[in-house]
Structures are given as C-alpha cells and as structure tokens.
Design a protein that fits this description.
Strand content: 15-25%
Helix content: 25-40%
Oligomer: single chain
Strand order of the largest sheet: 2-4-3-10-7-9-8-5
Mean pLDDT: 88
Order of helices and strands: HHHEHEHEEHEHHHHEEHEEHEH
Number of helices: 13
Radius of gyration: 20 Å
Distance between the termini: 36 Å
C-alpha cells in the first residue's frame, strides 16, 4: 500500500503528534496520554508504517546544521529531476526539494568546507544543466524539523509526553563516538523506533549497553528524532519556503517569533541577500497569504520571496548512507566522486 491511498483521521494525527514529541515513546505510553487503548495505538501505528506513510528516523545534531549551506539551484527546463536525483545521492546532502515551476531546486548541504568547495567551484560549473547557484550559510538555527509539532495535542498532553522517563543511569557524556556509538546511530538513522532488544541485535551490542549508550547519546543531542510524514495527510497541502530580508536589529526577534509559530518547520538566519529563511506548512494558499500578511507583517520584514515546493526529492531524515550509490553512478556530475 502506498501513502497516496491512505488517509488519516483525528486519532491518526494525534498519534503522529505524540511521536513528534517523543519519537521513541512506546505505544502504551502514547495510549495513556491520548486516552485510548495500547492495542489501538499499536494497530494504528502498524497500519501507517506498513503503508509507508509514517516513519521515525534520527536527525543529525542541531550543531551540525549551523554552518551548513542552503543552495538555490536553477536548472535548464526539463533537467530538474535529473539534477535533483544527483544531489539526493550525495551523503552530505540533508534534503532536496523541487520547486513549483520545475526550474529551481532547494538543497541543504552538510559536510566540511573542502567537500562544499569542490562541489560549488568544480562540479557544479561543469554541469551544463545547472544555470546558476546561490549559496547561503546557516548562521543560527532557530528551529528545524525536529521542533515542528502538528498542533493536534493539548499542552497537557505535550508536557506528559515530554516528561523524562525513569531509566538506568547514562554513561558519562563524551565528545567522540566509538565503534559501538557509530553502529547504534547507523541503525537509528533508518528506524529510530526500534526497541532496545532490536537495536542490540542489529548493532551486535548487549541490551543493557544499548540502554546506557542511548541515554548518553540523548544527553549529548545525538538522539534527536523526526517523524517523516507527508504533510497532506495532516491536512497541510502547501509546503513553502520564505526568503526574507530583515533589519539586523530585528533579526533575532523575527527568528524567534517564527520558530514559535505552529506552521513553521524550520527557521534559520543565513548569509546572503536574504538573511532569514523559514519553511512552513499551510492548509492551503489562502492560509499562506494570511501568514504572510498577519504573521510576517508585524515583524518588520523588509521583503520576502515565497517559493512553493512541488515535491520533496530527498526529505529531511531520508538517510545519509548513500556513499555506495553515489559512487556507482559516475555519469552524475554533482554526485560525489
């Protein structure tokens, strides 16, 4: 079953909302907070996951996104899909979106300066299908996809799910990962809802060690989860990016205000002609207009350019284990060589 033929009712959306607060919350805990049976939550979750409509994955730490590069890539008409797929194959690309009109892509690039410079100064210029690129470095991350909530839970329900659970003491926080950490994180990248026993089996680590390590990784910000769900299933038909110019004296205020708004799922201060970027989901185009007028208007935004996403070619959280795939396609000019 594909997610295009599945629909969500109010309870489905509330279950998704619960996982947005705690992606690893057990079905029984979600059920207690939502006031339904654990069997109902388990059955609903299985249905959504089997349909490919919902998955929970691990996001990179927020500090890795600061210093990332947001690219606006213009391409020759008819070449957008090919170029988008080539970018998506790169393991250092966090997301790729195809914009309405078919001649522009939005790309978020992680990785080190050497890889970025090789891409921008050597590979991109050699790709005839790309007509122009503007690069914007992320200076401050006010909010990203992990912070977004579907606004379907009460404040009390959100607080109950966010409350820390009793667990075994974590191991001391350390800055470097060892082989055990790396194996656990690799598994969690693809499915962050695996049980401790399943994680231990897949990573070949004792379950007691898994519990301690996950506590430590969570304390260090390495266990951020993301619910991957198509916005349309939550009643949000429009996915848009806003590229804004804000007076420096109001940049922090505008960034924090937009990050707190329930429609935004990413807000960042960047370099470039536009110094504030926001991504938001809206019910329809009328709601996007109202957001522009009623929310942006009072924040002192000097100018805004709005782009609407036609398709997420590589959604945030789609995984970064594509090194082998990239190397196997030498004909892709912007794929990692």
């Amino acid at each position: 079953m594909a997610d295009s033929v599945i629909t969500f009712d109010r309870l489905d959306r509330r279950i998704v909302g619960a996982l947005q607060v705690d992606g690893r919350a057990e079905a029984a805990r979600v059920a207690r907070v939502l006031g339904v049976s654990a069997r109902t939550v388990s059955r609903r979750l299985a249905r959504m996951q089997d349909a490919g409509a919902v998955s929970v994955v691990r996001l990179p730490p927020a500090q890795e996104v600061v210093g990332a590069t947001a690219l606006r890539v213009r391409v020759t008409r008819g070449k957008a899909e090919t170029v988008a797929e080539a970018f998506a194959l790169r393991p250092d690309v966090l997301s790729v979106d195809l914009l309405t009109g078919g001649e522009e892509l939005s790309v978020l690039l992680l990785g080190d300066d050497a890889d970025r410079d090789h891409l921008l100064y050597r590979q991109v210029p050699a790709t005839a299908a790309i007509t122009s690129v503007s690069a914007h470095t992320v200076l401050r991350l006010f909010a990203d996809a992990q912070h977004w909530r579907a606004d379907v839970l009460t404040p009390e329900e959100t607080a109950a799910l966010a409350a820390p659970q009793r667990a075994e003491p974590a191991e001391p926080v350390v800055s470097a990962h060892d082989d055990v950490d790396r194996r656990l994180l690799t598994v969690l990248d693809k499915n962050a809802r695996l049980s401790f026993a399943e994680l231990g089996h897949l990573a070949q680590v004792p379950e007691t060690t898994v519990r301690r390590r996950l506590r430590r990784l969570a304390a260090a910000g390495h266990l951020r989860t993301l619910v991957r769900v198509r916005p349309g299933l939550l009643g949000l038909a429009v996915d848009a990016n806003l590229w804004m110019q804000v007076p420096p004296g109001r940049l922090r205020e505008a960034g924090e205000a937009l990050a707190a708004h329930p429609l935004t799922h990413a807000v960042a201060a960047t370099t470039g002609a536009c110094n504030l970027v926001a991504a938001l989901y809206c019910r329809d185009h009328q709601a996007l207009y109202e957001f522009t007028v009623d929310v942006l208007g009072p924040l002192g935004i000097s100018s805004v350019e709005t782009t609407v996403i036609a398709r997420a070619v590589k959604p945030v959280g789609a995984g970064r284990d594509t090194e082998t795939q990239s190397a196997s396609r030498p004909g892709r000019a912007v794929a990692r060589s």
